[in-house]
Amino acid sequence: MQMEPEIRDRGEFEPLDSCDERILAVINELHHRDDPIPNDLNERVEFVLELEAALDAKVASVFRPKEMTLVRGDADLAVSQGDPTSITFDCEAVTVMVTPRPAASRELRLDGWIGPEGTYGVELRSPQGTRHVSSDESGRFVLEGLPNNEIFQLVIRPSEALQREGLPAVVVTPAVRL
Predict the structure, then answer these.
(1) Which tens digit of pLDDT belongs to each residue from 53-74?
(2) What is the DSSP string of 8-45?
(3) 151-158 and 176-177 as β-strands: parallel, antiparallel, unpaired?
(4) Which of the listed CATH numbers 2.60.120, 2.60.40, 2.115.10, 2.40.30 matches domain 41-177?
(5) In terms of pTM, does the model score above 0.70?
């Protein structure tokens, strides 16, 4: 597509001048102040790339409900706005909800639930290493002694019985910070 000469003379096609450079400098300063690049960005990227290279898996996304939802309580299902500290990961066949709770000085306990119900192998990957647990028949699992403010990623492996029912062999969550 060729531009008409009168369009080519508009300011958007002119070289940058000192006013443009000042505007770009202000925008750059705002980005550095209000949305800085995380100090551990390289570590995060390497962590995710390593996992993707090692596994051929379904990747779950973080689910953020916008309206009232049913959540599991200690006794019964209760209607609430959801626990603000809970994180829900969702893919087409599996949903994982985790709630980090303070356990000891600088440590967290991660309570988790996986649906549909059944037994799952749960692997927590972090820069500190890998931890393995299994869920019970209801899909509930607990990981204790986790460092606070650490990046983690879950690798979920449904039992063979669940895989025969159509669940993928591996589900991976995005890396998030506790």
Answers:
(1) 666 566 676 765 544 344 444 3
(2) HTSGGGSPP-HHHHHHHHHHHHHHHHHSPPPTTHHHHH
(3) antiparallel
(4) 2.60.40
(5) no
